Automatic annotation (TrEMBL):
Protein's name according to its UniProt entry: Putative phytosulfokine receptor 2
Family affiliation: Belongs to the RLP family.
Membrane topology, record value: Single-pass type I membrane protein
Keywords, comma-separated and alphabetical: Cell membrane, Glycoprotein, Leucine-rich repeat, Membrane, Receptor, Repeat, Signal, Transferase, Transmembrane, Transmembrane helix
Organism: Davidia involucrata
Molecular-function GO terms, alphabetical: protein serine/threonine kinase activity
One Gene Ontology cellular component annotation held by this UniProt entry: plasma membrane
EC number assigned by the record: 2.7.11.1
SUPFAM superfamilies linked to this entry: L domain-like (SSF52058)
Pfam family, one: LRR_1
Length: 268
């Protein structure tokens, strides 16, 4: 039920008829040189829970048939050349059990959609280093279980919305290296998971063994974590155009390990 060919030098198309693998639960082809489009037949793997195709040379759109992957928990497509972000999110939000979605370094220069319904089960969402345009979309507020949110290294503009403070499970937030303006919303000092000493972090991916990568700068390949609780509780807002002062209430965030506000226009 597990097919793991990660970290090889495999190339060419993923030319497999997956209809003959109905009980496949894990497919890991990450860190190879596969090219071309995603195989549509993969949607027939109704028991697929973990799919990692990161760090390949894959192109094209996410097939609409992938909405049928209702058992999918973990999906990493980072470091490829996929297009049509709006279409991808529209398809994947129908994977109702999806808890981890890593789309870093795809959809270059596209607009981040603002009309999604959200992901009800999502805990980790990474969409960094895509040069995306637009504002921070309000549908993220519907991702009530979200713990880790990475939108770094894009071209997002506008202010940080005050509703961010309503995301009760959020403990890792990275909006660094964008074009965000305005002040730090006071609601950010009220993130429940960073205020309460009783908050617990889910061991979300401890059983998958598949690494998560969070890109911290353009020259590095990324920081690697193997489970959600490995992420240090952090707020990264560096290298934007944020102004105003730092709220004294930041001191209420007793669980916060990292606060990076560097390279902004903060005064006081």
């Amino acid at each position: 039920r597990v097919l793991d060919l990660r970290n090889n030098s495999l190339s060419g198309l993923i030319d497999v008829n997956f209809t003959g693998l109905p009980h496949l639960s894990t497919l890991d082809l990450a860190s190879n040189n596969f090219s071309g489009a995603l195989p549509d037949s993969l949607s027939s793997c109704q028991e697929l829970k973990i799919l990692s195709l990161a760090k390949n040379e894959l192109t094209g759109k996410i097939p609409e048939s992938y909405a049928n992957l209702t058992s999918l928990l973990f999906l990493s497509l980072s470091n490829n050349s996929f297009v049509d972000l709006a279409g991808a999110l529209s398809v994947l939000q129908q994977c109702r059990n999806l808890t981890t979605l890593i789309l870093t370094e795809n959809f270059h220069g596209e607009e981040i959609p603002n009309d999604m319904s959200g992901f009800k089960s999502l805990m980790i969402f990474a969409l960094g280093n895509c040069a995306l345009n637009g504002q921070i979309p309000i549908w993220l507020l519907n991702c009530r279980k979200l713990q880790v949110l990475d939108l770094s290294w894009n071209q997002l503009y506008g202010s940080i919305p005050s509703w961010i403070g309503q995301m009760e499970s959020l403990f890792y937030l990275d909006f660094s290296n964008n074009s965000l303006t305005g002040q730090i919303p006071k609601s950010l000092t009220q993130l429940r998971s960073l205020v309460s000493t009783n908050s617990t972090l889910s061991n979300l991916n401890s059983s998958t063994g598949i690494p998560l990568y969070v890109k911290r700068n353009q020259s590095a390949s990324g920081l690697q974590y193997n489970q959600a609780s490995s992420f240090p509780p952090s707020i990264y807002l560096s290298n934007n155009r944020i102004n105003g002062t730092i709220w004294p209430e930041i001191g209420q965030l007793k669980q916060l390990h990292v606060l990076d506000l560097s390279r902004n226009k903060i005064t006081g």
